[in-house]
Specification:
Elements lengths: L3 E5 L6 H10 L4 E3 H7 L6 H10 L12 H10 L1 H24 L7 E4 L14 E6 L2 H12 L3 H10 L3 H7 L2 E4 L4 H17 L1
Parallel strand pairs: 1-3, 1-4, 2-3, 4-5
This protein binds adenosine-5'-triphosphate.
Adenosine-5'-triphosphate binds next to helix 1, helix 6 and helix 9.
Length: about 200
Amino acid sequence: MSRVIGLTGGIGSGKSSAAAHFRALGIRVTDADQVARQVVQPGSPALQAIADHFGEALIQSDGQLDRAALRAIVFADTAEKHFLETLLHPLIRTTIAETLAQAHDQPYQLLESPLLLETDQKALVDAVILVDVSPDTQIARASRRDNNTKAQVEAIMASQMSRADKLALADFVLDNEGKPEQLKQQVEALHLKLLAS
Ligand SMILES: Nc1ncnc2c1ncn2[C@@H]1O[C@H](COP(=O)(O)OP(=O)(O)OP(=O)(O)O)[C@@H](O)[C@H]1O
C-alpha cells in the first residue's frame, strides 16, 4: 500500500482547495466526508440503524438521509452524538482503510478528513498535513461559502480540536491565511518534499 499522508484542518480552512492542488499533481485523494456519505447511502444497514433509532422521519422521500436534521439532533444532545459516532466511526474507518489499501503505484496518497485528529482515523496515516488559518478567517470563509451564521460556524469549530492542539500534532503546515495562489505554491513545494522523503 502506498504511504498515506493525512490532510486536515478545521471548517473552512481550505482542505478541499489544498486537496484539489494535490490531485492536479496526480496524487490520489480519499475524501473521508465522501466515505461518511457513502456508508449511509439508501438501502445501507447504517441508514436503517439510524432510522430505527432516530425515527423514519430522518429519511427523505428520495430515500436519502436528511443530514441537516440529523446534525441538528446530535449537536443539541451529547448522548445522541455518542450513539451516532459509535455506529458510524468504525464503519467509516474500515471503508477508508479498504480504499487506501487499493493504492499501490503512488509515491504517496492523501486522506482528506476534517476529523482526522479527533477520531481513530489518525491511526491510518503515516504523517499529518494541517491546513492552518486563524479562527476569524475560518468564520469569514465558512459563513460566506455555506450561508452559515457566525454562531453556526463557531458551534462547529467548538466541536473540533483547537488550532493549537492541531498545530502540535502536525508534521507539515500549509498556511492558508493568504491568497489562493500562495496555497497552491505551498502545496507544490510540499509535494516535492514528500517525493524526496
Ligand atoms: N486562500 C484563500 N483565500 C480566499 N478564499 C479561500 C482561500 N482558500 C479557500 N478559500 C475559500 O474558503 C472556503 C473554504 O475552503 P475549502 O472548502 O477548501 O475548505 P475546507 O477546509 O475543505 O472546508 P470544510 O471542512 O468546511 O468543507 C471556500 O469557499 C474556498 O473557496
